[in-house]
Amino acid sequence: MTAATTVKSVSVEEANRRKLKQALVAYSFIAPNFIGFAIFTLGPIILAMIMAFMEWDGSNPWKFVGIQNFVTIFSDDRFMASLKNTVIYSIFTVPLTLIIALGLAILLNQKIKGRNFFRTVTFFPYVASLVAVAAVWNMLFTPAKGGVINQLLINIFHVPALKWAASPKTVLMTIIMFSIWKNMGYYMVIYLAGLQNINTELYEAAGLDGANVWQKFKYVTVPQLKPTTFFVIIMLTINCFKVYDIVYMLAGGSNGVINKSAIVLVYYIYEEAFRNWNLGIASAGSLVLFAIVLAITIIQFSGEKNYAND
Amino acid sequence: MKKIVSSLLVASMAATSLAACGGSSTTATTAAATTAAAAETKAQEEKATEAATEAATGDAVTLKWALWDASSITYYQPLIDAYKADHPNVNIEMIDLGSTDYSTVLGTQLSGSGSDFDVVTIKDVPGYMTLVNKGVLEPLNDKIKEAGIDLQQYGGITDQVTINDNLYELPFRSDIWVLYYNKDVFDKAGVAYPTNDMTWEQYDELARKVTDTTPGSEVYGAHYHTWRSTIQLDGILDGKNTIVGGNYDFTKPYYEMVLKQQQDGVCMDYATLKTQGLHYSDAFAQGNVAMMNMGSWFIATLINKIKSGEYTDCTNWGMVKYPHAEGVEAGSTLATITALALPTSAPHKDEAWDFIKFVTGENGAQVLAETGNIPAMTNENIVSAIASMDGFPQDDTSKDALITSHTYLEMPANDKSSEIETVLNEQHDLIMTESSTIDEAVQAMNEGVQAIIG
Hints:
The complex is a heterodimer.
Chain A: H1 2-51, E1 54-55, E2 63-64, H2 68-74, H3 77-107, H4 115-127, H5 130-140, H6 148-155, H7 171-196, H8 200-208, H9 213-224, H10 226-241, H11 245-251, H12 265-275, H13 279-309
Antiparallel strand pairs in A: 1-2
Chain B: H1 2-39, H2 41-57, E1 61-67, H3 76-86, E2 90-96, H4 102-110, E3 119-122, H5 125-134, H6 141-147, E4 170-182, H7 183-189, H8 200-210, E5 220-223, H9 252-263, H10 270-276, H11 280-285, E6 289-295, H12 297-307, E7 317-321, E8 332-341, H13 349-360, H14 362-370, H15 380-387, H16 396-400, E9 406-409, H17 417-432, H18 438-453
Parallel strand pairs in B: 1-2, 1-3, 5-6, 8-9
Antiparallel strand pairs in B: 3-8, 4-6, 4-7, 4-8
């Protein structure tokens, strides 16, 4: 009796130890990645959350200032402009990129001649170096009346020339157009993968039921692509709120200073942190950005759950 | 097993943190290595021999010098060579931080305790103010007194960067703004050259005279680089106004003049220049620009690129003093200084200070002048050394152009200079792209800057 209990308890202990060992081995495998994440991502995030309530220039001692940094940024023209521009940029870029990427994916999913060539052409802007294509783009969309695109506008469409990235009225539009052109190829590839996963029997069945092309698209393609669309929307939205490089390249000019007409949140954060050395204000700005992205993601995730319950 | 796992963890943690600490210095060394390799293989060979000598003598010191554009700026290596001739046991390693974001990168490197620079170059006054406010530069007053350096030799420019009675940098280069012109363009148009005593009205008239707006063979009477300083700062040369004062009404006449020129095709369109990022030297080198206002740093570039055969359409150039407002003495111009400073974290402070004294003193000035640059410390010998340089225009007007009556810093020392610059840059851009009227933009400058300086 006693012997049996001992054996049993020993084996339980043994099992627990084995479990622990397995867990530790598993942890040791993720350790290199996690330690990197903790040092370079998690640490700075926590630090930024603390720093948002401090005044710090990078060298002198920290000073606690309460919510003063948030008061400062929400009364700062440049911050409000950056918030507004980022939201406008996202509102236009997300749906337009999505629709164009889906359209291209459907077109290039047909059996047409030179399909792979056109797929490459569409994907190329995404892989090309941003600096190089931005330089070419700036040449095409030069504000001079003799510029390629302006000549087209004047001679073919008979509308006045535009100043594109050089004018506060059109700079955001130019950035949005560039962003769509640059990124549509990437999302097209994701949609292509989604399209090829759709069972062709569904289309055949719909065809037997007398569905036309539009009905097939609406009742088969769109619902079947829901998970892909969900993924694309999340990635696009987050990337839109993080936009920086495109704006810097197109609107930065020769001294790298971005005006209120084109400033975006991430640029504002960079400017406050490393040009003006107000690290507290910059951290407050990044917390606002974090809150926005978090809120959008939560809303989209709950939307996804509703899909699943349908 | 547990032990193995935990020691693994510790080891990987240590490795990561080591990598983190080493990050900045590794990049720096790599940058330096690349630069050195690109710039001068000879220097490396010398370094090798140097290292051998050092190993023999035993007390070698390597100073790390933070700077920009090591491969294209012509005086770094001659300065180092001249210094090493007298100090064989000192090695100087150039660390190139790039020119675009130099002040930002330097500020980041000197924050915290990650840097081991012995000498840092200070590019502009806002960058200087940032570092002084951060408390990362060594105050130099005591050292200057001890070394018996006479600050008068810098022509009063050190007074403008003295903060709370203390000086944290010593200038070695002091550039002034002049008006460059292409003699061929004037000859072709049959118009007399500009002179050393011109008002802005005369300048405008002259620019219009040489301008040709025939499509395909345009000649631009004037060229303004996209910097706000090319126009905005023309207004401070009467000595009555300052760029950090909060009232910018004085810039209006200059904006009116340039905007009118832009509309009439006298100068290139700002918006196009901005988006295409055309460099001012390339604009001038095209050979269809008659006059261009620019700093004296352009002299060395012009001389060298004409010598190397890269510039063929502006070989016959000259320069005159900056135009001036009515009633202001000719020779009033903008100045900008390049200086050396000693970081508080410098590992070899004494040797670094000795090097700073050398570069900012008479010997350094001589080296700068020989390479076509204007040293901060000037006397007659130095001016004649520059003017006698091979490739420098030989007319008397060009030689006299370097003599100034009053100089004003492009950006005076001010705590809020980088915030002020943001406002001024933005409104400059709006005026020049004709997105705002001059009155609206100047109003916005006044309000924006007053809100900053409080």
